[in-house]
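quick one
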Amino acid sequence: MLSSLNADLHSHSTRSDGVLTPSALAERAKRNGVELWALTDHDEVSGIAEARAAAADLKMPFIAGVEVSVTWAGKTVHIVGLGIDENNADLKEGLRQTRSGRERRAHDIAAELEKAAGIRGAYEGAMQYVGNPDLISRSHFARFLVEKGVCKSVSDVFQHYLADGKPGFVAHRWAKLSDALGWIQQAGGVAVIAHPGRYDLSDVALTALMEEFKQLGGVAIETVTGSHTPDQYAQFHNIARRMQFDSSRGSDFHSPDDCEVDIGFLPALKPSATPVWHRWQQLL
Ligand code: AMP
Ligand code: MN
Ligand code: MN
Ligand code: MN
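structure w/ manganese (II) ion:
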């Protein structure tokens, strides 16, 4: 049955804030039994060619993806694009613009960490973990702060330093929702709301987000993701059915040392879901 396919359509490589190269990630996905894989680096598609070639060598069906950082109603929201043409000029230019503020923000985060928490050298420290100089992320700061012994785990760093309202947080303006969907659609892909249970939005605001997303042509939401609790799998399954969204499934895997769920190790979608991968059946 299509809904029980081991699809993992959300994962990160060293081209953004993951710790495995696209090839190593492909090998891990295959070993873990993944039957359809997407690489979805943040604001970046430079790992897709390597991922596609590695997946082909392993005979593992692959679709090209990306996770676009968006600011909606003042909050950060992530939109996954699946089945994109990574060479599309509009998409590439949009992602380049979206990445462009990260360097400045990283210096500001380091300055905040020094001013508010007395932590010095965080920019250089985070840079030691960066695989792609265009893509410095809060995850790289988190790994540095764990190495320094400031916190025990990456999630502790977010809880105490890097999340909104904490001493190392720097507000940032990402892409517009309408632009993100436009780039994904121009590139022939479909848009998916990533981990909808993770946003700091009221129920009313979350519904408004999903309605606007739908109006802009968005087709799916992640229901089974490493960021959701089992209760949230059920909650978002019901929302997807009610709002006629396809369901997507993905671990959001970044690192073997620090992950909620390993790549490929998620519960199946419920049989009554419409899996977003019904669109790529020819690959299976
Ligand atoms: P950025 O795009 O630089 O703001 O970084 C966002 C990334 O930080 C996310 O994609 C996650 O990988 C990571 N992240 C955010 N919140 C948490 C958290 N609470 N625990 C662990 N990682 C987190
Ligand atoms: Mn990430
Ligand atoms: Mn995300
Ligand atoms: Mn992600």
